[in-house]
Amino acid sequence: MAAAHLNLGSYVFAFISLSLSGMAPSIQAHVAVYDEYWSQRQTEALRQTKESYDPNPFNVTDHFNYHAAQAMDTSGADNETRRHLRQVRGKTKRRGGRYYSFNAIDKCWRGDKKWEKNRKKLAHCVLGFGRKTTGGKKGQFYVVTDASDNDLVNPKPGTLRHAVTRDRPLWIVFARGMIIKLQQELIITNDKTIDGRGANVHITGGAGLTLQFVKNVIIHNIHIKHIKRGAGGMIRDCEHHVGHRSMSDGDGIMIFGASNIWIDHVSMTHCSDGMIDAIMGSTAITISNCHLTDHNEVMLFGGKNEDVIDKKMQITVAFNHFGKRLVQRMPRVRYGLVHVVNNDYTHWEMYAIGGNMNPTIISQGNRFIAPPKENCKQVTKREYTTYKEWKSWNWQSEKDYFLNGAYFVNSGSPNAWSPAPKNPIHSKFAIPPQPGTKVRRLTKDAGTLGCRPGKSC
């Protein structure tokens, strides 16, 4: 097993020795007037980025794979969770009884029939680089009762915009199913959870969700669709500040200089720009259990070649279903490190995973089903770079499952070029991923869940 495990110790994370102390965000996103308030938020966000960066990222990837293996173990030998799983080698049980999941994140909370009373248990379930995200766990519950978004400066109490701009931790839930048509981008502050369980919540319209210079946010179990560019204007960005915003891009979720972010069980379709973009020093992010369809440029991690702060970027993409009518960028990466693990890639038209500026991409246990076009079967795409340069980038595939002619081009020395590379990592850290052949079972409930009170979700 040690020889097969990725040779992470000697070269995957070589960039961590670089001096990043002088790096700072160089652009202001959609802030039209960059006043003292935004300058302070930027300074704090940069500090948080440096604090959230993990200098030993292979421990994080192995921690994820350890819990993924534990969730798949049906032996019942070690603990109560495994005793529950012992009964379900074939199908998961739900509705009338307890829910059993082979998905390590879902297993943590979905078997609880009293999930509605124990909502904050969710905050203990995140894995990957966003594993320290707790959202609004330390705050009160806020119930959204009003689907309107009519006042951007003084949002009405009971609306989602009022909730996300409060200057305190909040766990935001919804009184009923609703369609929230945003007039402009929804700017979210620190320590928030948007929890759509038990309600059918659709966010649509003019611009999407913006997480700019913030930390500790969970977005869970909502639909985000048909997001358009916003014209900008005066918009409240926290409880005690209103600022002028320029035109927004039309991203479903924009993560800008933010850290400790978890996006889980979100269904997304038809956004004007990206579905989920993470740029300008964003790090400590997990994107899991999402279902994505009908889009061109799906995920962009790292926005500009000049933004070397993105060498601090660390993102986990896990248990997602990349579905129908997607074209490219699942994700596309500049700098940084992305762990792409146990996702189901059933559709792409150009490529699945791409990037430039020497990112580290660890692809483990995914299923890749190539499109019919012969020239689009390669999973990977290195952009704006010659082979002489990219051959040393560390892009590795381990236990991926390739169908219909799909193939992944490895790179990185020496792992890509040696038939039996030496693994310098102690065996206790050499934890392989769940294989791509198990992905259908792991991602079958990707997207929003129809949770009902009194029943396992």
TrEMBL record:
Keywords: Calcium, Glycoprotein, Lyase, Metal-binding, Signal. Residues 177-374 form the Pectate lyase domain. Its EC number is 4.2.2.2. Binds 1 Ca(2+) ion. Required for its activity. Its cofactor is Ca(2+). Pathway: Glycan metabolism; pectin degradation; 2-dehydro-3-deoxy-D-gluconate from pectin: step 2/5. GO terms for molecular function: metal ion binding; pectate lyase activity. It holds the Pfam family Pec_lyase_N. It catalyses: Eliminative cleavage of (1->4)-alpha-D-galacturonan to give oligosaccharides with 4-deoxy-alpha-D-galact-4-enuronosyl groups at their non-reducing ends. InterPro entries: AmbAllergen, Pec_lyase, Pec_lyase_N, Pectin_lyas_fold, Pectin_lyase_fold/virulence, PEL. Gene3D superfamilies: Single-stranded right-handed beta-helix, Pectin lyase-like (2.160.20.10). It comes from the Eukaryota. The keyword Metal-binding applies. Residues 1-29 form the signal peptide. PANTHER family: PECTATE LYASE, PECTATE LYASE 18-RELATED. Belongs to the polysaccharide lyase 1 family. This is Pectate lyase. It comes from Eruca vesicaria subsp. sativa (Garden rocket). The lineage of its organism: Eukaryota, Viridiplantae, Streptophyta, Embryophyta, Tracheophyta.
